Structure formats: structure tokens, C-alpha cells
Amino acid sequence: MSRFGDFGDICSNTPSYTWCNLFYRQLSNPKSNLTHLLTGLSADSNTAPVGVNLSCGIPRVGTDGSIGNIANIIVCALSMVVMIGLLFLTERRKAAVGRVELRNMLVLYLITLPLQLLTNGSLLEQGSTGLVVLTAIHAAVVATLFWALLANALVSLQVVEDGTMASLAPFFIFSLIVFVATLYISLDVALGFTHVLGPSSDPGELRSIPLFILTSLWPGVAAVAYFGIMLYVILGMLKEARPTLHYILAAVLFIFSQLAWFLLGKVLCNASGSKIDGSFIATILETAAVAFVFLGWRGITEDDWDDKLYF
């Protein structure tokens, strides 16, 4: 059984699992004398897919005619268009409660999409500085995104007035703290410049408890807290039932997106001859979940419409 914070099994059994980019370098560095631990598809960094010692993965673009993780690349591009549309609709609702906070969350999710396209698209060489830095930034933005999600729920409680400095100052302060902390830990795992919050003391072990908490545990905790608070606001404070459907659907889609990463990835990779995996399905479901969060927000602020446009 894997220990808490262990990425070894995940990186070898889950194709295109982005955070595995942060561990490849510690094994591939000739000075580490650990290159012999890279086997199979991961042995050659020039062609290696996203992951470490994968039994099935999408080879880097250009390898034996590979076009990379093309399915997820296309889905990420289409999801960007969807997010831009949702941002436009959000901006039209000038008087809606929590508009600024929701906009900030949508912008963060939009930023994750081109980062995901680059970090798990099998476009860049494994272990390269560029891929490591982009993956670290991606991890930091994702961790910040889930803080933004939770902050949207807290704003809906109307403890402080939304859109004011009393609301936005804590939002941006905590966003900066989460972003910087996750970025530092991610870079330390990949580059090992301090080893304070970096990888395990065993250089051959793919393990980092801080990284696991921020990229795996924290998103789940934040999502559960968000949906719990929103159900309380809708059912307990607003005394409405209909808008709960959007939030329940968002929660279900989010859960299925995570299952797609871990359960469908290897199955689809083997079935397609290493051409696609579960990442594109996960991205579709994640984008749909964000869209339903928007619809839920629209449903509980519908009296604030200042025009005749309906989604």
C-alpha cells in the first residue's frame, strides 16, 4: 500500500497525470545516479510521455508519428472558448451578488487550461526546465483556483459585502499565499534547491507530503466545503430548492472527472494504442462542472439581471 504523499503508483498507473512532471527530473539527472530507475517508456526523456515508468502513455509529439495528447489539447482549446463566454455573461450581470469573486474564479480556471495543454499534452521534453517550471505554475494556479472556489462560497454567506475591499483584500491576500506556497513547494520537489519542503529524503522515492496535500487533498477539501456551504445558503438561508440541482450536478461532474483521470486513463490508453487517455474526458467534465457552478450562481441571483439576456 502506498504511503501518504506517495506519487509512485499514481505516476506509473495514471497516464498524463500532470504533477508527475515534477518528479521525473530527480531521476533523470545524471548526477543523481538514479537514471537506471527510469524504465520502459520513461527511459528516454526525448520521447517519454507524462508520467514515470508508465505501462502505457502517450509518447511525446513527433515520436513514431505521435501527435501528442491531441484529444485533450482540442478539449482544452474548446474549454477556453466556453470560459470566455461565461466570463462575458458574468460581466453582464453588474448588480449580481458575488460577481467579482466569481469572475476571478473563472479567470483562474481559464488560466489552467493553456497550462494543462502544455504540461500534459506530451509536447515538451520530460525533465526539461521549461516543463518543470510550467508544471509548477500550473500546480500553483490549481491550488489557488480551489481557494477561489471556497472564497465564492464564503462570500455567499454575506458576512461582508461582496465586491468591496473587505471581501477582495482577504481574497487576494490568501490567493497570493496559496500561489506562492504551492509554487515554491513544486519547484523544490522538481529542482531540489532546498530539500526543506521538497521530495523525500530517499531520492529514488517519488514522495512529497506537502505537494500531495496542495494538489490532491486540498482541492477535494475545498470542493466539499464549497458545496456544503452553498447547499446551506440555498436551502437554509434562501429557502429555495430548485438551484440546488445545478450545484449537485456540478459536484457529480467534478467527482466523475477525477474518476476519469484515475480509472479511464490506462484503459483508454491501451485500447487506443497510446493515442488518447482519460485526460480529455476529465477536462470535459471539469469544464462542465464549472459551467454548472455558474448556472447555480445565476439561479440564486436571477433577480439581479439588468438586461433581457438569459443563458
Automatic annotation (TrEMBL):
For this protein, the record's InterPro entries field holds:
Chs7 (IPR022057)
Keyword Transmembrane in record? yes
Q: Where are the transmembrane segments?
A: 70-90, 102-119, 131-155, 167-191, 211-235, 247-268, 280-300
Q: Which UniProt keywords apply?
A: Membrane, Transmembrane, Transmembrane helix
Q: Does the record carry Transmembrane as a key word?
A: yes
Q: Where is the signal peptide?
A: none
Q: Which GO terms describe its molecular function?
A: unfolded protein binding
One example of a Gene Ontology biological process annotation: protein folding
Q: Which GO terms describe its cellular component?
A: endoplasmic reticulum membrane
Q: What is this protein called?
A: Unplaced genomic scaffold GYMLUscaffold_57, whole genome shotgun sequence
Q: Which organism is it from?
A: Collybiopsis luxurians FD-317 M1
